[in-house]
Amino acid sequence: MLNLKSLNKNQREAVEYVQGPALVVAGAGSGKTKVLTYKIAHLIENNFLPENILALTFTNKAAKEMKERIHGLIGDSSQQLWMGTFHSIFARILRTEAASIGYTSNFSIYDNEDSHSAVSNIIEDLQLNSDVVVASKVRRRISYLKNLMIFPEEFKKEHVKGPVDEHIARVYEVYQQRLVENNAMDFEDLILKPLELFQNDKILKKYKKKFLYILVDEFQDTNKAQYEILKRLCSKEGHITVVGDDSQSIYSWRGAEIGNILSFEQDFTKAKVLKLEQNYRSTQYILKAADSVIKRNSRQIEKTLWTENPPGDQLSLLKSSDEKEEAIRIAKLIKEEITRNKYAHSDFAILYRTNAQSRTFEDVFRRERIPYVIIGGIEFYKRKEVKDLIGYLKVLTNPRDEESLLRIMNFPQRGIGMTTIKRMIGFARKHEITLFETMTRVFEVIDIKERIQKNVKNFKGVLDKYIILREKLSPGELIRALIDELGIVQMFKEDATHESMERLRNVEELLSAITEYSAANPESTLDDYLQEVALVTDLEMVDDKQNVVSLLTVHSAKGLEFPLVFVSGLEEDIFPLSNRFSSEATEEEERRLFYVAITRAQHKVYLSHARSRYRFGEVAYQNRSKFIDEVDPETINFDDPLANKRLERKSKKELMEETFATMDYIDPIIINSMIKIGSKVYHDTFKMGKVTQIIGTGDNQKVTVQFDGNNIKHLMLKYAKLKVMH
Ligand code: ATP
Ligand code: MG
User: Fold this and answer.
1) Known catalytic membership, residue 193
2) Which residue stretches of the chain have pLDDT < 50?
């Protein structure tokens, strides 16, 4: 028997109410998700079959967690539940019903890049001027229109203003046709096509009969089409429960409509509106701080939130001189909390506003041996644009690096396709030269169009130029010039999608990282830098995968909770983020994001900001976020939490020593082949040293190393287990 005793009176009412539609609007941590979980279990106990229940969550991770919790409550029958994101659930339904809307069940799903290239091909086919009708802009417009459910015909009739719009209307029309012809759907279609499907009465009936009860978490972030689906599918008994919090609506840029919460009461007549007012997650200080922030927003539904939890600690303010110190201080605080208060790594979350900010934390945490995981994102050095640029640097230091050369051959796009590349590789192999050398002789490679040959030649010219510049510029200057030459910033700016702005920020962050490195190590070369990156990225985190610090954006943190939360980068232009800060509405959305950030914490919040940070390779002096000043000052402890501790910055040497001391897994044969006279090496006992002599070959090779403190040793290379720095 399901025990509803662990629910409060209002939660219980929300769980037990099945007579009609229910809307739960309540603040953070009040148990909305818990209510949904229990309600599903309760329905099953009351003779609803799991396969007749549809539960929509915001992320797949949330769906998985909810499924696990329900499994804990009711056991194996939970497997049959229809639970997932709108996209995943409706993709599944579309596969089953594809035939009725002219698709086959194995239709492709286009990601953003696929859609972009489809649009760009259409512009070319229609022989439109691609400088006027810019592919990325058209793609963005189409996505926007689709989110608003404005289709080509309506667009053409009612929204066209001027000749460019006319072209867009034409491209939009052909784009929609091509998707169908290619048996493909884009992301928007996964939400729109079900509506088309449900115009067919027979199919609609089938799914209405199937989904006898519908539940939706994070309802404040549904968009227009998703809401339409719910309206269609909902049974006449009104078997639907949605839960949400207008104060946590943070996806308006993706077409989410807070208005859906307000419409619900009108559209689902006799809807019961339930409120949850007790917060179980956070301490009194945290709640009071969060409340003092969100009440500054003008548009919100009245809600109260209180807690029986203890007052707890005030929020701490963490001031750092720059972003590196910010990460070091946070690392230090984590270590301290773990030893002093017996927390585990998994009790901590570092939140940031933009993905690019993860880089400094990753660098510092790896060195400090703090295990971490990036939730809902990719590690900085594995992001595509970062790898592409590092690829350039690798080719500049080692033109024989074919893998890197292939990576950058067509980035940014310069019309060098796979066929061209294959032909060049064929030529290289036949003549036993490198791909890089082949580029110079590209005019000899047959079957490549002259235009493309020229592109290859120009590209080679750029590389040659930077190989020479490499000797003259610092790594920071070099990468800056290169980014400029390649027009990458321009490219992402023109695209201006949410995604390309993220990419741009990553490029910016890489430039900052290299400049910062050059400033800290004025003598160092590009090789040194690459070596450093390789080391940082190769360091394996050995700890248990479960017990790790979470690094994530505030967006990905929605719905989650952690005992201790660091909200980092609380500076103007970062959080709140500037380039979307164009109107009142977006300022309110940034504030809601800040509210989401604070309310993730159970025990303690650290608000952190830096006085300066590298931005686009320049030191920028940062003003602290207005949001810090909006928090009720009574809830903040302004004393430096590390005041009495020595915050030593480790020297490069210390860091290197630490890094090398923990590196055991690199094949010694590879390492030994890298050793040359002058190499800086590390030995477990003698520590750092410099190779002064190498005698012999193969297994008998001996090296003379001058270790620190003028400690000269003659070692058998094979047994010395040296680790190389240069
Ligand atoms: P958010 O708005 O952040 O999504 P939420 O309203 O969905 O929050 P939950 O995540 O469901 O809140 O609950 C917050 C925490 O409070 C969870 O740890 C949950 O287990 C706990 N909780 C909820 N209700 C109760 C209750 N009645 N008794 C004890 N703990 C509860
Ligand atoms: Mg929730």
Assistant:
1) no
2) 542, 580-582, 662-669, 726
For residues 553 and 330, the answer to whether their CB atoms sit within 8 Å is no
**Tens digit of pLDDT for each residue in 469-523?**
998 898 999 999 999 999 999 888 887 778 888 899 999 999 999 998 888 888 8
Name, in order, each residue with C-beta under 8 angstroms of 305's C-beta and a sequence gap of 6 or more. 26, 27, 28, 29, 30, 277, 278, 279, 287, 291
Query: DSSP of 553-585, one letter per residue?
Result: EHHHHTT--EEEEEE---BTBBTTBSTT--SHH
> Residues 216, 335: one domain?
no
Q: Whose CA is nearest to atom 27 of ligand 1?
A: 7
Residue 218 annotated to the active site: yes
Question: How far away, in angstroms, is 70 Cα from ligand 1 center?
Answer: 15
Atom 8 (ligand 1) nearest CA? 29
Does residue 351 share a domain with residue 340? yes
Q: Are residues 16 and 77 in the same domain?
A: yes
- Give the pLDDT score at 453: 93
Residue 348 φ/ψ, nearest 5 degrees: -110, 145
3-state secondary structure of 449: coil
Q: Is residue 238 part of a domain?
A: yes
Cis amide prior to 576 (ω within 30 degrees): yes
Instruction: Record the tokens describing residue 599, joined without a space.
Output: 């309310």
Report the CATH number at residue 297.
3.40.50.300
Q: Which of 367, 470, 600, 613 is catalytic?
A: 600
Which residues are registered as beta bridge partners of 715? Answer: 703
- The pTM (predicted TM-score) of the whole model is 0.81
Among 65, 281, 594, 600, name the best residue to mutate to test ligand 1's pocket (greatest count of ligand atoms within 8 A of Cβ).
281
Q: Does residue 101 lie within any of the structural domains?
A: no
Residue nearest to atom 16 of ligand 1 (CA): 280
Spacing, Cα 484 to ligand 1 middle (Å): 49
Angle between helices 498-520 and 384-397 (to 10 degrees): 40
Range of the domain at 464: 380-535
CATH number of the domain residue 175 falls in: 1.10.10.160
Same domain? 86 vs 232: yes
Residues 89 and 231 in one domain: yes
Same domain, 238 and 307: no
CA 483 – CA 655 distance, rounded (Å): 29
Query: Which CATH number do you get for residue 479?
Result: 1.10.486.10
Instruction: Kindly report the protein residue whose alpha carbon is nearest to atom 2 of ligand 1.
Output: 28
Residue that finishes a domain, picked among 637, 666, 696? 637
* Alpha-carbon torsion (294, 620, 618, 521), positive or negative: negative
Domain CATH for 678: 2.40.10
Which of these, 336, 344, 391, lies nearest to 371 by C-alpha position? 344
Main-chain dihedrals φ then ψ at residue 417, nearest 5 degrees: -90, 180
From the CA of 245, which ligand is nearest? 1
Compute the distance between CA of residue 439 and CA of residue 361 in angstroms, rounded to an integer: 39
Task: Tell me, yes or no, whether 202 and 146 share the same domain.
Answer: no
309 within 8 A of 280, measured Cβ to Cβ? yes
In a domain, 488, yes or no: yes
Ligand nearest to the CA of 601: 1
pLDDT of amino acid 677? 82
Q: Domain boundary at 124, 152, 182, which?
A: 182
Together in a domain, 388 and 447: yes
Pocket test for ligand 1, best of 36, 275, 280 (most atoms within 8 A of CB): 280
Does a structural domain hold residue 284? Answer: no
HEC string for 493-512? HHHCCHHHHHHHHHHHHHHH
pLDDT at site 539 = 58
Number of structural domains found in the chain: 5
d(CA 517, CA 525): 10
